[in-house]
Design a protein that fits this description.
The complex is a heterodimer of chains A (316) and B (501). Chain A has 316 residues and is mainly alpha-helical. Chain A has a domain at 43-240. Helix content of chain A is 75%, strand content 0%. Chain A contains 14 helices and no strands. Chain A has helices spanning 2-6, 10-22, 32-57, 65-80, 93-117, 123-142, 152-159, 161-181, 183-193, 195-200, 205-231, 243-252, 264-283, 288-315. The longest helix of chain A has 28 residues, at 288-315. The radius of gyration of chain A is 20 Å and the shape is globular. Chain B folds into three domains: 2-237, P-loop containing nucleotide triphosphate hydrolases (Rossmann fold); 243-329 and 416-501, P-loop containing nucleotide triphosphate hydrolases (Rossmann fold, 3-Layer(aba) Sandwich), CATH 3.40.50; 334-415, no CATH class. Chain B has 17 helices and 24 strands. In chain B, the strands form six sheets. Chain B has a six-stranded mixed beta sheet with strand order 6-9-10-3-11-12, with helices on both faces. In chain B, strands 18-21-22-15-23-24 form a six-stranded mixed beta sheet, with helices on both faces. In chain B, strands 2-1-4-5 form a four-stranded antiparallel beta sheet, with helices on one face. In chain B, α4 (114-127) packs across α5 (143-156), α13 (370-383) packs across α14 and α14 packs parallel to α15. Chain A binds chain B through residues 178, 181-187, 189-190, 193-194, 196-204, 260-261, 316, and chain B through 11-12, 300, 302, 321-323, 326-327, 332, 334, 339-346, 350, 354-355, 357-358, 360-361, 365-368, 370, 411.
Chain lengths: 316, 501
């Protein structure tokens, strides 16, 4: 019991227990088609969450990730759509669209990184304001309309689950290796633990912090590709309600909001757990608001559990 | 007054205190000495209600005393003056003193009676001889003045027992004298005191009785006459220490390692010029605020300098980031180990390799070679003689001060620095660990490195350095060579700061 409680895989065990406990009472929870539904919900969310994990590890926060997803979604749509796209029907429409969507993420990540490092604005305020500005921009850009008619070769990326799974898997694995094995990853933890000590020890803290926000933006751009392709529309309100899901999932996965602690594997489990909760509650016929309330409770419980664990670990 | 009877405490199954018993009689001052990790802090945490003892009892004026919280200890009129002061910088002196409970104008309305507070604070400040208005913000006070506010706070409690935990670490010698005068007055008023410090001469000067702790046990207790400094030291470390400074067999070479020419920064440094040769240990002496730490930060590129030239082995350092200076062979052990030296929550190994990490990263993606890292950590651990009981994966915060400092040294030594700037390298660490730090410094200069050693302990500089720069108000006022080391001044300093301090 104690070993399970203190294990890094605790959230995975919880997910399995949750699944086993609810499967008998929830019609269709354990079916193959529902498994695909869960996966379709989980994959794009995981990509954003992984990017956010990096930012949380250095002790920062990025509230603009969902607005990046929305803006990238409409920018991509505006380029690729066969109805109103700038490159409609062009052979390079899809590559250009994909590139533009990723660049939106990188660009906004650069703004965040610049604000946090050079201007020394607290990350919460910096990314809150970019979030407000960028989500407004996305809506203004399309006059609040959705963009349809996306090319089939693009839509495939999200609709064919195995492709989405491969993209997500590769991105997640790359983030994991970066964090666990590279110099850059070690520097992230050092900055999260003590940015001053890291600076004195020769870590280029400003450059690393900047790069982290850019990476987080890039992951959000990639997530936007999966979201947009999956739903076959460029939507200026894409992922609007997912921000706290993402933050919650990362925290459930054991990443500390104070920085210095967290792993990509934990985030994978956190997203899995949240996806299971969300899916099962929907299957049980609860409405959106009830689901939100329960998810809030689950995240709170996870935070409490983590606090208890830390106290326990500190006592030994 | 207070009696400890067979106090035991264990953490993680390790006994930190093994049946500690001693008494502090009313109106007497007891010096509590011991190396870091001897159990002093744990014992005081039990006394202050931060930790419950595993076994044993305490008696306050004959009554059983078992505080459940710091608040309970205060209610029993037991007050602490901590090493890291527990004051709120953003509040005024008066607010800090009455933070436990403000007097109200009307009993049932939470309206603070500012007048009473001010009048009462003024009386208290007079008692501790602090000439400041009660409305002064604490952040505007010097370290010494804050200490006096802490004492005033204890007096406001009408404390019967006051515990001083390393109160002089950040004080100038003048402030220290003033503190001691006030402590003498408190003793006359019948207040019992426990005085914890590494400055053994202070213990001899101030205390009536002395208790020596080692490995969680009382290994010596008695009147101060029975425990002269040498006796205390040998009891503390469990063996006779014959020398405080290890011998060095190498001499400075002719080649200049660091050439500093005319560094100036308005209000901080004025025309600082000196040269540091290979194999030399150059001391920097001066009071806090004399610009000695600021000099180190400028040399390392953490603070700006308006004019001047810094040349390391022929290469100019001006305009380079700390990282680029490290790559050129500079190292910097900061004054504040917890704030800037270590990632306390991170593992020993991660801290130890932090500086040299780029050397262990290969290829375009800079993959860290974990095996090489591990063996480097194992090797450097041995070199700095880090306690063998600590695992490399353990968080640094679980180590004692001396071992934490060894981790900081390990981190820099792994990078084989050519010029090492040490700011207060032995602050807050015990005798044994100090000796190890000195030994490591000597080994480093024997390998041809140069060391700039900043310290407030003159004894230490005289024992270690080839030359000493004396700074005052951002200027180098004097350079003392070995044959000029003034013995009388050293003796006087020894009387004030302790022969092992």
């Amino acid at each position: 019991m104690r070993r399970v409680f203190l294990s890094e895989y605790l959230v995975l065990w919880l997910s399995l227990v949750y699944f086993a406990a609810l499967a008998p009472f929830t019609p269709g929870f354990a079916s193959w088609s529902n498994f695909q539904t869960i996966l379709a919900y989980l994959l794009p969310l995981l990509v954003v969450a992984v990017g956010l994990t990096l930012v949380l590890i250095i002790g920062g926060i990025d509230l603009s990730v969902t607005s990046i997803i929305a803006l990238a979604s409409v920018v991509g749509g505006k380029i690729m759509s066969s109805e109103e796209g700038w490159l409609a029907g062009h052979a390079l429409a899809v590559p250009a669209g994909l590139m533009a969507m990723l660049l939106v993420g990188v660009g906004i990540g650069m703004i965040n990184g610049f604000a946090v490092t050079t201007c020394r604005i607290p990350a919460f305020i910096a990314t809150l304001t970019t979030m407000m500005f960028v989500s407004g921009l996305a809506i203004w850009f399309t006059l609040s309309r959705k963009i349809g008619g996306l090319p089939p070769s693009f839509v495939m990326l999200g609709q064919k689950l195995w492709i989405a799974a491969v993209i997500t898997g590769v991105a997640t694995w790359l983030a994991h290796v970066t964090l666990a094995r590279t110099l850059f990853g070690r520097w992230l933890y050092a900055i999260g633990h003590n940015a001053k000590a890291a600076l004195v020890s020769g870590v280029p803290t400003a450059r690393v912090t900047f790069a982290t926000y850019v990476l987080c933006g890039l992951f959000a751009g990639l997530a936007s590709i999966l979201f947009t392709a999956g739903l076959e529309t460029g939507n200026p309100e894409m992922a609007r309600d997912n921000l706290l899901d993402v933050v919650g999932a990362v925290v459930i996965g054991g990443t500390s909001l104070y920085g210095g602690r967290g792993r990509v594997v934990g985030t994978v489990f956190g997203v899995l757990f949240l996806a299971l909760v969300d899916n099962s509650l929907n299957l049980l016929g609860l409405n959106f608001y009830t689901v939100t309330m329960v998810k809030g409770g689950v995240i709170l419980a996870a935070a409490l559990l983590d606090a208890m664990r830390n106290k326990f670990l500190a006592r030994g | 007054m207070i009696e400890f009877r067979n106090i035991e405490k264990s953490f993680f199954g390790v006994n930190v205190l093994k049946g500690v018993s001693f008494t502090v009689p009313p109106g007497q001052t007891v010096g509590l000495v011991g190396e870091n990790g001897a159990g002093k802090s744990t014992l005081m945490n039990i006394l202050g209600g931060n930790l419950p003892p595993t076994a044993g009892e305490m008696f306050l004026n004959g009554q059983p005393y078992a505080p459940a919280s710091p608040r309970a200890a205060e209610n029993a009129r037991v007050a602490f003056i901590h090493q890291e002061l527990n004051l709120f910088g953003n509040l005024s002196i008066a607010e800090n003193i009455f933070i436990r409970g403000f007097p109200r104008k009307f009993p049932w309305v939470p309206w603070i009676d500012q007048r009473t507070i001010r009048v009462r604070t003024r009386q208290l400040l007079e008692e501790v001889q602090l000439a400041r208005s009660p409305d002064t913000l604490v952040e505007q006070l010097s370290a010494g003045e804050r200490q006096l506010v802490e004492i005033a706070k204890a007096l406001a409690l009408d404390a019967r027992l006051i515990i001083f935990d390393e109160p002089t670490t950040s004080l100038t010698s003048r402030e220290t004298d003033r503190l001691f005068a006030i402590m003498a007055r408190l003793r006359e008023r019948g207040i019992a005191m426990i005085y914890i410090t590494h400055y053994l001469a202070h213990v001899q000067q101030l205390c009536d009785r002395i208790v020596v702790l080692r490995d969680g046990q009382v290994v010596g207790a008695g009147e101060k006459a029975e425990l002269p400094i040498e006796r205390m030291i040998s009891l503390m470390v469990g063996r006779e220490i014959t020398q405080l400074f290890p011998a060095r067999n190498t001499k400075p070479e002719a080649e200049i390692a660091l050439d500093v020419r005319g560094i100036s920064q308005p209000g901080i440094a004025r025309n600082l010029t000196f040269q540091l040769r290979r194999g030399e240990i150059l001391g920097v002496s001066g009071l806090m605020g004399s610009g000695r730490s600021e000099l180190a930060r400028i040399l390392f590129g953490l603070d700006p300098c308006a004019t001047g030239e810094i040349v390391l082995n022929g290469q100019s350092l001006v305009g380079l980031s700390p990282r680029e200076r490290i790559q050129r062979g500079l190292a910097f052990l900061t004054e504040d180990r917890r704030a800037e030296g270590l990632c306390l929550e991170a593992a020993i190994a991660d801290n130890a390799v932090l500086v040299s990490l780029p050397q262990f990263a290969r290829g375009a993606v800079r993959l860290v070679d974990r095996n090489r890292c591990r063996s480097a950590v194992d090797k450097i651990r041995e070199a700095v003689k880090l306690t063998a009981s600590a695992r490399s994966e353990q968080p640094v915060k679980t180590l004692s001060g001396g071992n934490q400092q060894k981790v900081v040294l390990a981190k820099w030594l792994l990078n084989e620095p050519k010029v090492f700037i040490l700011d207060e390298p032995t602050r807050g660490i015990d005798v044994g660990a100090k000796y190890e730090v000195y030994r490591l410094i000597n080994e480093l200069v024997a390998r041809g490195a140069a060391v700039l050693m900043i310290s407030s302990e003159v004894e230490e500089l005289v024992g270690m350095c080839d030359r000493i720069l004396v700074m005052r108000r951002g200027e180098i006022r004097d350079t003392v060579s070995p044959h000029e080391f003034d013995r009388e001044r050293i003796l006087r300093a020894a009387l004030h700061d302790g022969s092992i301090a």
